Structures are given as structure tokens and as C-alpha cells.
Amino acid sequence: MDPEIAEDVSPEQLDRTARQRLRTLTKDNSDRVAKHLIMAGRLIDDEPEVAYEHAHSALRRAGRVDIVREAVALTAYATARYAEALRELRTVRRLSGVDAHRAIEADCERGLGRPERAIALASASPSDGQSPDDRVELAIVVSGARLDMHEPEAALLALESPLVASTRDPELRLRVDEARVTVLRALGRDEEASALEATFPAEAAGTEEESGDDEVVMSDLEDEALPPGSDR
């Protein structure tokens, strides 16, 4: 049985690039798949298990569409189904020819207890579309993998490259600093860790309400600019 679709959901809320990926489907099927993808995108942060169900509902209707397999991969990752996420991400790459989620692939290897494979993935030659921020995401995963291997000094080095230091994205910068705090504590440098932690912004008291008319972006499979993966 399919999970419930909210009444305010319409296919037009899916972003234009994603809708184009569904053009091989019949109109009715495309609309239904779009709605499940929208629900998966809405719920992945707060209700990842339900988001995963929506992704699988889309999969049953459009298993050969790359953005549908991507939705399954991302929701599987969000629910710690790392083997499935890894398998689906490889399928996405085969279907689309785009290497958009290498950091998530590497982090799935960590989740499966294979930090050496995570490091190998991160060390492979970057794809043509890989941005500097993609590589910073990979550095965060590598740092975590080094900690998994009880190599805190190497974990710190992974976060101290010029590339990592040059990132301007405030959200990504915060995630780098959070990873650095974890490494500093592993090294017994608690004072430095606490001092860095004290610079973090306070969490927002509330969350912004989203309008039902907003576009939902589920796919990262752009032709040129590829958003980075994310650490666990």
C-alpha cells in the first residue's frame, strides 16, 4: 500500500529538471510519481522512514528513471540502509552518467564498516563536474573514516587542506568545524574543541513554514553543476 499523499501536493511542485526526467512516462503515471517524489523530498529530514516509503512507491511505477532511483538512494541513506543506498547510487550513475553523490557513497562505505573503501573512493580522480565544495564534503567523510580507523592525526590533516580552508559556504564551513571538534576531542585537545564549539551559532528557535506552492527539488542530476554529497 502506498503512503498517503498530502492534499496540497501537485506535480507542478517538482522542479523543472526533475519533471523533464519523467517525460518518458504516461501523464497519469508521471503525475503520481512526481507526487511521491515531492513527498519524499518534504519528509526526508523529519520523517525519513515515510520518505523512504514514498520513494519506493515511485520506484514501483518508474524503476528505470534516474531521479526515482536517486530518491530511493537518498532516503535509504537517511534511514541508515547503507547497502541499499550504495547500490542505488551506482544505478543512478549508470543510468545518468553523472557522478553526483560520491561523498554519500563514501559515507555509505563507512556505515558498512569499510572506512578503507571510503578513503579509496574519496582519493579517486575527481569527475569533470565535481566542484570544490564536493571535495570538501569528501574531506569531511575522509576525516570520519580516519577516526573509524583510530587515526585522529590523519583525520585532522584531512580537514586542514587549503581547499577545505577556502570554502565560503557558511553551512559547509560549520560542518567542517563540527567535524574538527570531534577530531580535536579524539586527540584529547578538549580546550581547543570547546573554544571552537563556542563559536557555533545558536540553533534557530523555529523553522520556516513552507508554502504548498513552493517547488520541491528532489534531483541533483544536473547536466553541469553537481551539488556535493553529505556526511552522516
Domain count: the total is 2
Shape: elongated
Main β-sheet: number of strands, strand sense, barrel status? Answer: none
Q: Total number of β-strand segments?
A: 0
Helix percent band: 55-70%
Please identify the structural class as seen in this structure: mainly alpha
What is the helix tally? 12
Average pLDDT works out at 88
- Which sequence of SSEs, written as H and E, runs from N to C? HHHHHHHHHHHH
Q: How much beta, percentage-wise?
A: under 5%
CATH class descriptor of the largest domain: Mainly Alpha
- What is the terminal separation in angstroms? 30 Å
Determine the CATH topology of the largest domain: Serine Threonine Protein Phosphatase 5, Tetratricopeptide repeat
List low-pLDDT spans: 204-232
CATH architecture of the largest domain: Alpha Horseshoe
Backbone CA Rg: 19 Å
Describe this structure in words.
- The protein is mainly alpha-helical.
- It folds into two domains: 98 residues, Alpha Horseshoe (Serine Threonine Protein Phosphatase 5, Tetratricopeptide repeat); 102 residues, Serine Threonine Protein Phosphatase 5, Tetratricopeptide repeat (Alpha Horseshoe), CATH 1.25.40.
- Helix content is 59%, strand content 0%.
- It contains twelve helices and no strands.
- Helix 4 runs antiparallel to helix 5, helix 6 packs parallel to helix 8 and helix 11 packs antiparallel against helix 12.
- The longest helix is centred in the N-terminal third of the chain and has 17 residues.
- It is elongated.
- The two termini are 30 Å apart.
- The C terminus is likely disordered.
